[in-house]
Specification:
Helix 2 links the parallel strand 2 and strand 3. By secondary structure, the protein is an alpha/beta fold. The protein is globular, with a radius of gyration of 20 Å. The relative contact order is 0.11.
Length: 393
């Protein structure tokens, strides 16, 4: 039986990589639904090639444009908005959902997929960062199969024992060694960080990614969000997760055991590897990734992250320890700050300052309902915008 796949965020880098893996295995996978933000031309192209039953756009205007682009002969139904996203995520005709919508907007449809008991391939780290315990409770209650797709978390998943619940503290696991490339500004001085441009921040030395995640990688906020995600996925405390800057991006993460063994997952910096692992798990399939040439790489390097120049990693760990709605506030403030930087309304070095001020201004509330989380998310975005407006021009 073919797996019926829905891709949330089909026109982004993760979505396109997923489609490439699916394209290589027509005997294994079929597309039930594709979703996108507002990229009508790309979505129309994908619909013509893959012929999904349903396509969803972020708003009605984009949906109407897609209907016009596809014409009357299409078999693809076109929906719009969050309701359409949740509808395809929980549809009984699909069993596998790739959650690759960037940012907090990905939480509602990802949660819908979880609650309906799907295999959820989690590439949207913000969903778990925002809702933490509530999200994991929903996974447990529904029986959903949650497989991490971030290269680091997928590496940890592969290095942990299979026949257990993958919690740290059992089966001899001591800690997680979470690797980070260090981003394009790893060797910049604090003064130099104030002058970097959006184009420079989006040019990652190893990975091909979207703008938002590229900036997060440059500030190390991406690693901070991944630290929070690892704590929830693997039932770890922040002190059990140690970040290692590894500029080559070949070792995607490691797991240390109490007997001194350290297991690592290596591979080229290509997201098709973890995507294929999630789609076919527990089997292995060809992902289209060339074999790793260790002779060409020659040697690996490691260093500690500099929390003075890159405080976002510290802020993320502090938000997780604070608990409640603090991680949701952290994430919302970061999204607003990164968007302002990309619009050239904010200096790169001011991104962590906006996040820290937003965290300081809002109270930490119990994250006991999704309504509370979404309310604090909205409040944090407003506070972050106000903080940006107060900055000297």
């Amino acid at each position: 039986m073919k797996r019926q796949v829905t891709i949330l965020g089909a026109t982004g880098s993760i979505g396109l990589s997923t489609l490439d893996v699916v394209r290589r295995h027509p005997d294994r996978f079929a597309l039930h639904a594709l979703t996108a933000n507002t990229n009508v031309d790309e979505m129309a192209r994908l619909c013509r090639e893959f012929r999904p039953r349903v396509a969803v756009m972020a708003d009605s205007r984009s949906a109407e444009a897609l209907v016009q682009a596809l014409g009357q002969n299409t078999e693809t139904e076109v929906l719009a908005g969050e309701q359409g996203l949740c509808q395809v995520a929980e549809a009984p005709d699909t069993d596998t959902v790739m959650a690759a919508i960037v940012g907090g907007a990905g939480l509602p449809p990802t949660l819908a997929a979880v609650r309906s008991g799907k295999r959820v391939l989690l590439a949207n780290k913000e969903a778990l960062v925002m809702s933490g315990q509530l999200f994991m409770d929903a996974v447990s209650e529904s029986g959903a199969e949650l497989l991490p797709i971030d290269s680091e978390h997928n590496a940890i998943f592969q290095c942990l024992p299979v026949a257990r619940n993958r919690d740290l503290g059992v089966d001899g696991v001591r800690r997680i060694l979470l690797t980070a490339s260090g981003g394009p500004f790893r060797n910049h001085t604090a003064e130099a960080l104030r002058t970097v441009s959006p184009a420079q921040a989006c040019k990652h030395p190893n990975w091909s990614m979207g703008q938002k995640i590229s900036v997060d990688s440059a500030t190390l906020m991406n690693k901070g969000l991944e630290l929070i995600e690892a704590c929830w996925l693997f039932n770890a405390r922040p002190e059990q997760v140690e970040v290692h800057v590894h500029p080559e991006s070949i070792i995607h993460s490691m797991v240390e055991y109490v007997d001194g063994s350290v297991l690592a997952q290596l591979g080229s910096p290509d997201m098709r590897t973890p995507i294929a692992n999630g789609l076919a798990w527990p089997e292995r399939i060809d992902a289209g990734v060339p074999p790793l040439d260790l002779f060409a790489i020659g040697r690996f390097h490691f260093e500690r992250p500099d929390l003075e120049r890159f405080p976002c990693l510290r802020l993320a760990a502090e938000a997780y320890r604070a608990g409640g709605t603090a991680p949701a506030v952290l994430n919302a403030a970061n999204e607003v700050a990164v968007a302002a930087f990309l619009d050239r309304a904010l200096c790169f070095a001011d991104i962590p300052a906006i996040i820290e001020r937003t965290l300081a201004e809002l109270p930490v509330l119990p994250a006991d309902s999704f309504d509370t989380i979404f309310a604090q998310d909205r409040a944090a975005r407003q506070v972050a915008r106000e903080q940006i407006a107060r900055l000297p021009v």
